[in-house]
Amino acid sequence: MRSYPGTMARRNEIMMASVGIDYQRFNEGILAFNYEAMMEEVGYGLEEVTRIQKGVSVGNTPLIELRNLTRLARRLAPPGKGARIFLKDEAANPSGSFKDRRAALSAYHAKTLGYKGMIAATSGNYGAAVASQAAALGLECIVAQEVYDSQGRGQPEILEKGRKCEAYGAEVVQLTVGPELFYVFLLLLEETGYFNASLYTPFAIAGIETLGYEVGTQVTSQVGRPPAAVLVTHAGGGNITGTARGLRKAGCQSTHVVAVSVDLSGLHMASDRDFNRKSFTTGHTGFGVPFATWPDRVDVPRNAARPLRYMDRYVTVSQGEVFYVTEALSQLEGLERGPAGNTSLAAALVIAGEYPEDEAVVVQETEYTGAGKLPSSQLSFARGLGVKVRRGDPGESIPGQSIVTPEHPGQLRLTEVDLEGLARSYLRKALAALEGKSLDASTVCFLAQEVRQSEDFVREFASVSAQESR
Fold first, then answer.
1. Which of 152, 402, 410, 434 could form a disulfide bond with 388, CB atoms 3.0-4.6 angstroms apart?
2. CA torsion 167→172→176→180, rounded to 10°?
């Protein structure tokens, strides 16, 4: 008979069988591993990924200039400032989001290796993307979702995503919030022998590189120069990692990669009480900060998404600001899109004012929308839980207690996240994982690359930490 401890003890064995990757051959110590070798040897080349995605109608999405929102940003900006704002319309992909790019490659890989089906554990758009790509390649599909709190209440957005997965023919396993998701995920993998379509394999990240590459080449073609800044809605780190790697392959070395999350500080994602008190199911700090400061907390031994390696800047916006900009996109540009990309769009209206008018700022994704994703659905659900919704200064918002939408665009603002502070948080976890073992040269080098700091920074942090612990 299977038991929770027994199943968890077989975690690595189950993972190995379900993704077909021998992660151990990239290890260079307790913490260090050869990240670039893993990406090069296990993933696919850019041209091959493009060919695979094209075969299932994924990618090559339109780049749309938001002229009316650009005019609005210029009215708020200092004289001569107000870069052109562009939107990469990823809703044009088959299931309606950029997640089709990573799912297309995972499905292709699963099919090539002879797996009969795919499993994904996700409450986001990725489930629909995996279901869509599995259907296109004739694979079976199971999607495990955290949907309900202990009172049986589910967010409209997550319920909508479940219905979308079922529409593609997937079996959807709906769970309550808590640790059972990963346990059930392992059980399903072991019972079915299906492919683990994890968000965090090298194939999943390589699939997003085409998005960054397209942004770089399309903007250069239309504007005559690479984008000044690309804004990426940040959660688990795959979006920013793949996009930044693709931008580099397009020659956009000077482009600033800006991560943007909805501020949900104070809410715990695994809390039964807090689970439904957030009005955004992804792209928020509840995932963005933990995954930046310790990426290897996922369903594969080595996470191919390493966000701190690629962030030039990290900012947050409030829930009310994203709802406000979602309506502005619809009413000023005639584009009704879901909330994920609009998180970055809220920041873009401010960041455009930092650059000259002849530069380009790009929001690199949109997502499909539907009844469950509309602001009206999410705000009605929030009110039902006692969250106060009103207009005013969004800076007065308290996640889980109030949502304040701006009264005018001049109230949009950004909160900067201290990247050096995130680096220190990462290193603190790394030293704890070493359990007192000394840092060797390869580990220092690896950690410096992980946090985009110098090796001296890593050594100094370790030295100070050692002194403080005595």
1. 402
2. -150
Cα–Cα distance, 11 to 93 (Å, whole number): 33
CA distance 302 to 31: 10
The answer to pTM > 0.70 is yes
pLDDT tens over the chain, length 470 residues: 578 888 888 888 888 889 888 888 999 988 899 999 999 887 789 999 999 999 999 999 999 999 999 999 999 999 999 999 999 999 999 999 999 999 999 999 999 999 999 999 988 899 999 999 999 999 999 999 989 998 999 888 889 889 999 999 999 999 988 778 888 999 999 999 999 999 999 999 999 999 999 999 999 999 999 999 999 999 999 999 999 999 999 999 999 999 999 999 988 877 888 888 888 878 889 889 999 999 998 888 899 999 999 999 999 999 999 999 999 999 999 999 998 999 999 999 999 999 999 999 999 999 999 888 889 999 999 999 999 999 999 999 999 999 999 999 999 999 999 999 999 999 999 999 988 888 899 999 999 999 999 999 999 999 999 888 77
Give dist(CA 163, CA 165) in Å, integer.
5
Provide CB contacts within 8 A for 138, sequence distance 6+. 111
Element (H, E) at 108: helix 99-113
Residue 47 to residues 43, 101, 249, Cα–Cα distance (Å): 12, 14, 11
Q: How many other C-beta atoms are found inside a 10 Å radius of the C-beta of residue 242? A: 27
